[in-house]
Amino acid sequence: MSVFDDLIRGVRANGSLFGSSTLSPPWALHFVDGAPLTLCTVLGGSGWIVADGCPPEPLRPYDTIVVRGPTTFTFVDEVGTAAEPIVCGEDCATPDQGGTRHRLGWSDVDDGTGGTTLIVGAYPVRGEISRPLLDALPVILRVDAGGTGDPVLDHLAAEVALDVPGQQVVLDRLLDWMLVCTLREWFDRPDGEPPAWWAAQRDSVVGDALRLLHADPAAPWTIASLAEGAKVSRSTLAKRFADLVGEPPLTYLTRWRMTLAADLLVEREKATIADVAREVGYSDPFGFSVAFKRVRGVNPSEFRRALSP
């Protein structure tokens, strides 16, 4: 399991809100939910994404833009449009459609003039696992047409136009696929500055060590056992890991364990502190609590109480 595999698993679509509209100008759709991630693309025509505090971004056929919440944004036919904004959000999803295909207030027009067809998916993100991924993203992320996501958009366009059993599951999985394609292309862009873990996971030495840590974070890892798994000396692993990731291997492991523990504390209400400690590799709950407070700033019990409903 790569670092990216682990981080993206907390960003799974589940009942994602989809809209597909064919619009004739002028228009202004104002998305007010501030979803953690919202993916926007057009299949034909063009428009602009105008997000709070960011310069306007053009959206041409098969371009993809991801907006990171809690920023809200508006999709317009042109910057400075005279159209009155139509508020779009979860609360105005059409009930009998389950919020998956159409939103109340979206203007569906098919007058043969070749309007703009918009597809947008609001992405729920839960827990702490994906926080390093979200933190690595700008408020507005764009990937131009012509990449690996284009075939996915063809599938999305076909599926959104249907009204058949199982549509929601298909849309969710297609959105997962589209998001992965978009993020990979954005991290790999020639002029990009990807997070340290993105480049490190492709290193022949550090990548092996990261895969071992993420595959079994509860294992009793030492520098020696990690170096053996990566087939290098301890000194080589320690230096290369610190140079590429920015911290020693066991410091990275502790932070990742505490991230996993943070989600377990919230998700498993009946689990004791000792249960959570064992699951992330600590036989001693006291030692786990000390490590958790050092990394997260509060002890496990305080953290759980603060996030309990």
Automatic annotation (TrEMBL):
One of its GO terms (molecular function) is DNA-binding transcription factor activity. Pfam families: Cupin_6 (PF12852), HTH_18 (PF12833). Keywords: DNA-binding, Transcription, Transcription regulation. PROSITE patterns: HTH_ARAC_FAMILY_1, HTH_ARAC_FAMILY_2. Residues 207-306 form the HTH araC/xylS-type domain. It comes from the Bacteria. InterPro entries: AraC_lig, AraC_XylS_family_regulators, Homeodomain-like_sf, HTH_AraC, HTH_AraC-typ_CS, Tscrpt_reg_AraC-type_HTH. This is AraC family transcriptional regulator. It comes from Mycolicibacterium hodleri. The lineage of its organism: Bacteria, Bacillati, Actinomycetota, Actinomycetes, Mycobacteriales.
